[in-house]
Amino acid sequence: MTTDIHNSWRQELQTEFNKPYFISLIEFVKTEYNNTQCFPPEDLIFNAFEKCHFNDLKVVIIGQDPYHNFNQANGLCFSVNDGVKHPPSLINIFKEIETDLGIAYPESGNLERWAEQGVFLLNATLTVRAHEAGSHQKQGWETFTDAVIKTISDKKENVVFLLWGGFAKKKAKLIDKKKHHILESGHPSPLSANRGYWFGNKHFSKTNVLLEKLDLVKVEW
After folding, report:
1. What is the DSSP string of 109-176?
2. Cα 198 from Cα 149, distance rounded (Å)
3. Helix (H) or strand (E) holding 39
4. Cα of 63 vs its chain's centroid, Å
5. Pick from 220, 198, 11: which is nearest to 101 by CA?
6. N or C: which end of the chain has fewer CB within 10 A?
7. Which residues is 132 bridged to in the sheet?
8. Secondary structure (3-state) at 195
């Protein structure tokens, strides 16, 4: 399965692939996919790495788990396939973009268009069993994705990290704040957003202001 990771990432993460935890993780995932219905489709497990290459990365968004219903998860956090009904968190993300940037609410919830502009959409856990949220947590994915975040922090400079909600904020300890930019807010889920912890964070315009100051191309959200 590691062969699915783009070369730009493979050379940065090669040492992780040889570690015992990762070998055990891949065996676990293979068994799960052989015996039960899991998401995303096997060829999209590392889609975030495929759609946003290491050298192009300029923004990181961290999610927790893939969506666990049919035809939703496509390997990018918060993203769903074209034609799929937008989940509540994604609706609130698009609503914030609408008010922040004056952009019309999009028809498609597929965030590949962000990934192709250098937005790395990383879930902490890359797989899940159908209809069982969190079912692949604590099997090694978090160790791997923490190593990914630390690699980005160590090897790159001036990356904008968007940390939404308590889970993502805990990842701040992996990021060198002297080299990178961290924007934090509540999670876009209705529970958090309706309490006033999400709307008005202006993370999308703030990200673009930071990118402009760095002479980088703004993201077309």
Report:
1. --THHHHTTTEEEEESS--EETTBTTTTTTSSHHHHHHHHHHHHHHH-SSPEEEEEHHHHHGGGGGS-
2. 23
3. strand 38-39
4. 5
5. 220
6. N
7. 129
8. coil
Tell me: the pLDDT tens digits for 47-70? 999 999 999 999 999 999 999 999
Say which residue the tokens 């666990």 belong to.
68
Q: What is the pTM of this model?
A: 0.96
Between strands 128-129 and 38-39, the pairing is antiparallel
Integer Rg of the chain from CA: 17
**Contacts with 18 (C-beta within 8 Å, 6 or more apart), sequence order:** none
Helix %, strand %, coil % of the chain (to 5)? 45, 10, 45
Q: Which structure tokens are listed for 40?
A: 């995303």
In 3D, which of 198, 201, 204 has the Cα closest to residue 220?
204
Share of the chain above pLDDT 70, in %: 99
- Give residue 1's pLDDT band: very low, low, confident or very high (50, 70, 90): low
In whole angstroms, give the CA distance from residue 36 to residue 152: 33
In DSSP terms, which residues pair with 83 in a beta bridge?
Answer: none
pLDDT at 92: 98
Q: In angstroms, what CA-CA distances link 184 with 77, 115, 218?
A: 17, 20, 19
Secondary structure letter of residue 44 according to DSSP? G
Which of the residues are catalytic?
Answer: 65
Q: What percentage of the chain reaches a pLDDT higher than 90? A: 95
The answer to whether the peptide bond before residue 188 is cis (omega within 30 degrees of 0) is: no
